[in-house]
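Hi team,

As requested, here is the filled-out complex form for the S-adenosylmethionine run. I kept the field names the same as last time so the parser does not choke. Let me know if anything looks off before we queue the next batch.

— J.
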Amino acid sequence: MKRIVESHQDYFHDIENANNYLNDAKNASKAKFNNFLSSIKKMDIKGKYLEIGSGPGIITQVVATQHPHAKIIANDISPEMINLAQLDLDENLKTRIKYKVGDACDINSLKDLGKFDLIYSTFTLHHWDNAELAIKNLYSMLNDNGLLYIHDLKRVIWLYYIKSQSGFFNSIRAAYRPDEIKTMLNRIGIKNFKIRTIFPFFMQSILIRK
Ligand SMILES: C[S@@+](CC[C@H](N)C(=O)[O-])C[C@H]1O[C@@H](n2cnc3c(N)ncnc32)[C@H](O)[C@@H]1O
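And here is what came back:
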């Protein structure tokens, strides 16, 4: 069950695609994010938050609203996405959310942001050019006892053989299996982690504690 990644690096750098993603994200099923949002709400982590691959910032605004004391830096590699996110940002959240362009795989583009108590990312892991390097970079940006929370799709055999080439199924083909994630974390030397499969079983959360 090989991982298949189509070249989608340019996809989010196109203003029309970025706009389409914003509209889709606004109408997306709550099931996509519910587990992640309820889980971080329960944790109620105090301090500074960093979101990686925030896209148009839909989740950023939900997280900021459900954590009224959190200050969030939201990053994306695509300047077009960051621009859209800034335009769509609710006036009341402007003092607590700052959007910045940067690449999770390039520590030089992130290092001025400082250290964080919670770093999270939704549906981006399978887009990172070098996931192992990105995780290593993000881990280095955690404060002691900080949490890196990555929520993404999971490559599962029963969806892999579906013929459809829709974006959703191709994203599943590009996603990692838990054993591949464990191998990356072992190579980095990260020992304190949990990988949870999320209903309906083609999603997973990776929780890494420093
Ligand atoms: C599928 S969208 C997810 C957006 C948002 N997190 C959500 O859940 O709706 C993936 C986002 O990851 C961004 N991205 C891809 N590679 C990245 C990288 N190396 N560093 C930062 N962002 C990246 C893309 O530009 C895109 O906005």
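Two things worth flagging: The helical segments are 15-27, 31-43, 58-66, 79-88, 131-140, 157-160, 167-174, 178-188. The pocket of S-adenosylmethionine is lined by residues 12, 25, 52-55, 58-59, 75-78, 81, 103-105, 122-124, 127-128 (CB under 6 Å).

Thanks,
J.
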